Amino acid sequence: MIDPVPEAPTHAARDQHAERAALLERLAGEVLALRETEGWHRYLAAQARFHRYSPRNAMLISLQRPDATSVAGFRTWQALGRQVRRGERGLSILAPLLTRRDDDDERLLAGFRWVSVFDVSQTDGEPLPSPVRLLEGDGPLALRGSLAGAAEVLGFQVAEEPLGPGVNGECRWATATIAVEVANPPLQQAKTIAHELGHALLHRHEPDRSRAEIEAEAVAYVVLAAHGADAAPYSAGYLASWLGPDGDVALAVRRSCDAIQRAAAAILDAIVVTAPGAVAAG
Q: Which helix (H) or strand (E) holds 28?
């Protein structure tokens, strides 16, 4: 049996692809512009105070507090304008013990000792500098509800939950659930649902966390733009934080353009299924 020849893309499909590619180029421009702001440099200065933990210490932190997001020592939190709350129990990790040889300045590893660190959720004080701004308001055409319906079409249910500081959403493949922070505005929740659906469609077995987060956020940006909502105040900073100060945003977007467009199209098509009056434009 001869396989049928696939149909060539229609003019409309080609136009739609080009429009979404242009949207991704615009998002890349937003990231580059953000990197010139004072707020971005404050964010980088704050991040420089956080240690990069070894895989062993990362596992120790996860075992003691699975929901930990930003972890630092007592003095580091004070330097960042935050104070560990009285009665909070520290997370135990291993710090190297270094000794200096008598004949030179070389430092040698003599062993390890237990030290305590604390998650941001165990502290109070000044908000940490952030490159993202939560999206305010309800959004166009009850978009949050439309995306929750699209999630059901794609095999996931949406649940509102208190997720803790700095966590806006989670994709839980084991229970086919997308959890969103209950306290966030509807438009931010809509963007989060689109982001987590991007993960659901693309990243079940993706080992590169940075690539996964960049792709999922770009998917959310395209989906919201298709309904007249601008996610750039959040998306640009989110992409910048995963790319780092020197990451090539244009290269990252080009590398993932097809995957981003494919996932965005699936979500927009699912919205049309649940709300026939909606138009998945752009």
A: helix 11-34
